[in-house]
Amino acid sequence: MRKFLTELRGKTVMTNDGQILGAIENFVIDTQTGGIAHVLVTASEDVESRLFQTDASGRLVLPFKSMRAVKDVVVMDLGK
Amino acid sequence: MLVEMTELIGRQVYTPEGRLLGEVANVVVDIEASKIDGLYVSDPNPVLVEDSRPVNVPYRWVSSVNDVVLLKYFPKRVSMKRGARATGSASAPEEEAPAAR
């Protein structure tokens, strides 16, 4: 499935047990290969961001490969 | 080099011959492959692309990304196949420059 970057940004991110994590802000890419390493998510207020890996500006850093369904929301299988 | 994907948007794209193809307007993401499918140039140079129709440049044609995006390959000229013009819609990500290499 192919999507535009602009379609994906702002989408709500949920865990597969239904917890809302926040909204997609950006992706981390390797410019040599075009591979996508991480999804950067702006955490919603009630998320304990301490439980996740975060970057310097406090965004959640989630592995791109855990993205499952990408429809109206994005479901992440974080396998906790 | 690891960068954030939105940094690609607005960068100029040059062919190996040094021609300016255009600016990256969007990035097409292949979700299953965890890869960038291509760089979407919405208003390409009419010298390279007939009628300046939007093209999705496959990421495998990208040579390097720094101040600009440099391609290692781009067709001499991209034109619509005869007869395809009537049905051809500019509904990328489906549209792609032909002659994949």
Which helices and strands occur, and which strands form pairs?
The complex is a heterodimer of chains A (80) and B (101).
Chain A lengths: L1 E3 H4 L3 E4 L4 E11 L5 E8 L16 E4 L3 E4 L3 E3 L4
Parallel strand pairs in A: 2-7
Antiparallel strand pairs in A: 2-3, 3-4, 4-5, 6-7
Chain B lengths: L1 E3 L7 E3 L5 E4 L2 E5 L4 E7 L13 E4 L3 E4 L3 E3 L12 H4 L14
Parallel strand pairs in B: 2-8
Antiparallel strand pairs in B: 2-3, 4-5, 5-6, 7-8
Brief sketch in words of this structure:
The complex is a heterodimer of chains A (80) and B (101). Chain A has 80 residues and is mainly beta.
* Topology-level CATH name of chain B: SH3 type barrels
Indicate the proportion of strand residues of chain B. Answer: 25-35%
- CATH architectural grouping of chain B: Roll
Which structural class do the helices and strands of chain A define?
mainly beta
Number of E-state strands of chain A: 7
Largest beta sheet of chain B: what is the strand line-up?
Answer: 3-2-8-7
Report on the biggest sheet of chain A. Answer: 6 strands, mixed
Average pLDDT level of chain A: 93
Q: Which segments of chain B are poorly predicted (pLDDT under 50) over 5 or more consecutive residues?
A: 86-95, 97-101
Strand fraction of chain A equals: over 45%
State the separation between the terminal residues of chain A, measured CA to CA. 26 Å
